[in-house]
Each structure stands twice: as structure tokens, then as C-alpha cells.
Amino acid sequence: MSLLERVDIVLVHPEQPGNVGAVARVLANLGIDSLILVEPRFRHWAEARKLAVHASDLLERARRVESLEEAVGDAAWVVATSCRGRTHAERKPPLDPEAFTRRLSELAGSQRLALVFGPESAGLTNRQLGLCQDILRLPTADRYPSLNLAQAVAICAWELRRCRLERPAAGTARRRASAGDINGLVEHMRRTLGNIDYLDPRNPEHVLDDLRALIMRAGPDSRELGMLRGIFHKMDVWMSLHGGPPNPNRR
User: Is the pLDDT of residue 200 over 50?
Assistant: First the structure.
């Protein structure tokens, strides 16, 4: 499977139907066939179909989902796009296009990439950025850094096509665990760490977000992620045998 066949373009809460149609058109131009829409914030699709022109079939086939977690669940690498500075940029230093294309070689030949774009008016929230392993920042002018949604997708899609033409994907890269599997581990950690009172019940996300970032930064494969799930499973078993909550994995 080629690189372009393994890319999901994810639009989170798009607000302008014309932008969505223009995105469909440029994806068809550049050979990317997967578009995922997370709860679009418009109801009328006529302008989207008009701007899609001959890519209306791609627009009609676009998956519509209710959450970013659902959209990226199958991806081994989830990359957000953002022009905003971050309060804790050292936790997730943004990639420039050159670093982004270099990192593509780390994906095994059948694993998927999800490239995530936020709504036109505000971009992705910090919570949504936290669900992504990396952040791609396009080198725009400081005085006006925010690109139109369809233009941003076009630039990123062109980089992917150029990478596909110049750097064939390596077939021996290590297989990363998917974003859905990582989310599953974090939810397991939420339950187990809550049972031992490690999490602040008023704000459990404060620790869980840091743990998620740590796991994503490590980029574990499925076997390594399974080891971590096994450790937390053993903790669940021990607690259930010593008067704690019942083991949720027990039939």
C-alpha cells in the first residue's frame, strides 16, 4: 500500500462548506483518497459540492464521526497542524515540513497517518492537540500566520506527495501502536490509578495528559503497549484479591 493510500485527512468541526469542498478537490488532485469529518458545523452542502467540482465523489465518501478519538483510532501516527504557540512547547516541539517528511520513514509500510486540522475560527484546542503525537507547523509569516483551511491542507498534501515521489516508504520500519490502542491504555490507567488514589478526582486529566504525552513521545509498538497493559492488569488483579474493586477484566 502506497503512502498516499495510508493517509487520513481529518477536519475537526469545519465551519465553512466551501472549504470542505476545496479540500476534497485538492486531495483528489494530489492522489489522497481518505477524508474524515468530525462533526461539521454546517448543514447545507451545496457550496461544498460546488467547490469540490469533479471530486464530489470523494466528498460524498468522506467518513463523518463524532469525536477526534474515533477519527484517529486506526492511525499509528497522529499529527496535528497548528500555527499557535504553546504554553509548554518543550513537551511537544513542533515539526517543520522537512522534519515531518523525515519522520514518515518511521512508519511501517501498512500503517496509517492521520493529519488533523482544526476549525477555521479557532484551530485545535489544547485537549485536541494532546491527542496527537506531534504537531506540524507550517513556516508562515509572523504577522499573519493563519492559513485558510483548504490552503493548509493543500500544502501538507503536496509535501506528502513529494515525499512519496522522492522517498519510497521503507518496508522494515517498526510498527507503532495505534492511537486507539494508546487511548485504550490511558483509559485503563485512569481506572487503575484512580483506584489507588493516585489521581486527583477533581482533575484527573492533569496527570493523564502528561502520561499520554510520555507514551506518545516513546512511540511504543504493539508488544510494548501490551506489556504496559499487562502491568496494569496485574495491579487490577492484586487489588481485587486483597479487598479492592473487582477486576474489570475478569469474566
Answer: yes
Q: Does 90 score more than 60 pLDDT?
A: no
Grid coordinates 517543520 are at which residue?
96
DSSP of 79-137: EEE--S--TTGGGSPPBPHHHHHHHGGGS-TT-EEEEEE--TTT---HHHHHTSSEEE-
Mean pLDDT in residue range 175-179: 85
Half-sphere exposure of 231 (CA within 13 A, CB side): 9
Average pLDDT over residues 95-109: 84
Q: What is the CA radius of gyration of the chain?
A: 20
CA distance 13 to 62: 14
Cell reading at 66: 463524532
Quick check: 38 and 65 in contact, CB under 8 A?
yes
> In this structure, what DSSP letter does residue 169 have?
P
State the helix-helix crossing angle for 222-241 and 179-195, rounded to 10 degrees: 20
Answer whether CATH 1.10.8 is correct for domain 179-241.
yes
240 burial class (0-12, 13-18, 19+ CB within 10 angstroms)?
middle
pLDDT of the residue at 244: 82
44 within 8 A of 17, measured Cβ to Cβ: yes
Which part of the chain is CATH 3.40.1280.10? Answer: 4-166
Domain 4-166 fold is Alpha/beta knot (3.40.1280)
Q: Where in the chain is the domain with CATH 1.10.8?
A: 179-241
Q: What angle do CA 105, 107, 109 make, to 5 degrees?
A: 100
pLDDT at 250: 60
pLDDT > 50? residue 43: yes
DSSP code of 95? B
